[in-house]
Design a protein that fits this description.
- With 612 residues, the chain is mainly β.
- Helices cover 5% and strands 60% of the residues.
- A hairpin with a 2-residue loop joins strand 34 and strand 35.
- The N terminus is likely disordered.
Amino acid sequence: MAVAVAVAVMSSSVTAQEVHKLEKVIVTATRTAQTVDETLAPVTVIDREEIERMQAVTVVELLNQAAPGVQVTSNGGPGSNSGVYIRGTKTAQTLVLLNGQKINTASSGSAPLEFIDPGQVERIEIVRGPRSSLYGADAVGGVINIITRKGSGAPKVSVKAGGGSRKTGEYAINIGGERNDVRFNLGGRLLETQGYDRTTEGQGTNQDDDAYRNKSLSGTLSKDFDNGIEGGVNFTYFTGKSEYDGYGSSDYLESQFSERMVSTYLSKNMTDVWSARIQGGFVKDERKELDHGAKKNFAENKNYSLSWLNDVAWADNQLLTAGIDYSKDRVASDATYVVDDRDNKAVFAQNQTFFAGSDLQLSGRYDDNEAFGGQWTGGAAWGVDLPEQMRLIASYATAFRAPTFGDMYRESLDYYSSIPNLNLKAEHSKNAELALTGQVGNAGTWSFNVYQNSMDDMLSSVEVRPRTYQTINIDKARIRGVEFEFSTQIKNINVSANFTYLDPENRSGKNKGKKLHYRAQKLAALNLDRDFGRWVIGGTLKAQGKIWTNPENTKQIPGYGTFDLRAMVKLSTDTKMQFKVNNLFDKKYEPVTGYQGEPRGVFATIIWSPEI
């Protein structure tokens, strides 16, 4: 709390440039439009300006410590398997959305973050803390909503070409804008790199470079009609391959992937106080594993979804958000699933009350899942305005995580066999949180959060007989955390920083009292960018503490820090060049046991963006 109070004092002494920034509007925290300043949830927004400034080639790069409590793990460089841990919860306990549509796979609970092109992203909204009372399953640690570009203003084309270390090449084109109440955007990209040997010495036996190629296409089209209806459709497609190391001397392994995501919506202001929106979507995830070009195995996930959302301002200071969600998952694989499809039906409601000096938010949801029955979740948050532009927010919420098809239905007779368990229950959590937020001058904000998340019925794989495993509900965990986030602008320097201290503790079984493995207990990031007119120069420092790599806490990988340097120069009104050095000091580190972090790399890009 001393840090938060110190920053509050700074708000009256730090001299920020007198710039009045437009508030960022978000939709993820409450499923209705709010500014970041209005929301009662801890939210971080990565907007289009920041995406371009960071020069990331993958969404994984953008997410890694972009917000307090967000830890990203990768088995190597671009295109490698990646996971995200929000506040110490694992990947399957984080809900990932693309344009509001779930993209976590039903078979494993993972999301294809490593394949999404940042060039087609308008903004990323990261909401920390449970949101099951609005979204249902898997929103235990938080929600990541990736929103693609929609087009606005005068039509413009953008052509991008770049390259650098490890024979990396990136080539992209984007066309977007607005005409006659029609908004459109269409973009495509080819990214390829020779890569580097992802495994550490002594791990993979074929110590060769692991290449990656990704071809992607994304588009949106929306229109405002004369009868007050707004309609739109968007799609995202990417396909490619990613090589990886095996443990046989003659292995030559690669993963081929293909992702298709389509959604459409209609919205209308039904009356002066009631607006409605209907949205439907389809997601298809395909993976094939090959050795010397011969298929070893495959997996396919499909998800169909439909939602009806309503906002009703039933009084001057009241906003009710209510709706119905339906989804159906299907899986196919060369492995056997005793059940290969299931559906989920849900109803939810949220009411926001706006008082003169405080806000109250109450929410509840009921999910009826074909596999594991009914689940009730709820949440409450109260925000009170304080002097000196500060705000105190207290909240409590429950959440659950659905067992994946792999947890519940997979049957395998390999060397290490797996047995399905049709009696699995969902994981459950209870989260209590206290936050203090404030402003720094006219261009900065800060926040300080303390929370505890207690989880029951956690899923764990146990050996029921030699080399035969089954997933059961046995584990309990308690995660406590402290987060600090700060951003401002001082004399043309954009400054943002965050720090997290996490205490993720196992509360059951033989490892009771041990730390949950693969959770970093300390995370920190600092971004500095200076505008010199034609030139903008910046850098990012990221630091991560040690990680226990097994439940017994007998093995660990050390902490590390990396520094990235970047620059941009305007060559003309519609042409600019970008330069980037990743891992400037060529730090050797392991984000995951047996896998190397990306070594130093130098890259340059030219972008031409004329109006048409």
